[in-house]
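As noted in the main text, all predictions were made from sequence alone. Below is one such record, for Probable nicotinate-nucleotide adenylyltransferase.
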Amino acid sequence: MKATKALVATKNQASPTTPDSIATDKVAIFGGSFDPPHLAHFEIILWLSKIFGQVIVIPAYQNPLKTPTTIPLQTRLQWCKKMCENIDNVIISDIEARNNRVMFACELARHFYVEYFGEKLLSNKQKSQNFTPPLYFVIGEDCLADLYKWKNIDELSSLVDFVVLKRGGEQKSSPKKISQSKSIKAKKSNQKNFSNPNQNNVDFVKLHYVDFCPNALLDFKLNSGDISSTFLRKSLKQNLNNQNNNEKILQALPKNLRDEVLAFFAKTSLQF
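Prediction:
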């Protein structure tokens, strides 16, 4: 898929777990280790593609707050591209691979803000607290507790709104715990959808909570109750000689990646 600055029209599809409406000129950034990419990743990306004009998926060089990845970045990039090859308005960005280093969320936000909306709009956004951002950062709810640790979180929260994916069965993080962090200063919006957000001037990042439970997980759940890249890696490594277990584990992977992922783990001697 080739990157393009032209935003494509989104499909008009509403459901209880999707925002009521959102303009097609919005861009969502979904970063992650994708170590490996799995079915929950795919369904989140597919869901985002129906709401946003453009979805930018960024396989990370290394998540600053997590342990080092085990699968090479170029392999993870290739798998993400193949996983999303039939979704027109999704771009798999190799920006971290090209820079060959960790890129913090704020740096990524600045880069894509300028690329898609121009330096002038970025300048206007930074000067006006009432400016509605065209850029959204997608995170899992488990990231909220560490959000105050993110580099330049003040600037980041002035550039983007956060789409917070609430995983089914998990306990909701407490907004009060995060709002007590002095390093987070922005507008508060705890709306469960994107329509008519209520903006109040308080110390908080702007969050849009979304209840999300991938349909594919209804009939297949791992022991953890959710698909986990860590669990998949360990399970694949431990069950390489058990074809029945492999087939069950591979159900957690997109169909067009299953053979490649299994072959990768069969040929490597990674230690977990």
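The beta strands are 27-32, 54-59, 90-92, 135-140, 161-167, 207-212. Confidence is low (pLDDT under 50) at residues 1-23, 169-204, 211-225. These features were considered when defining construct boundaries for the mutagenesis experiments described in Section 2.9.
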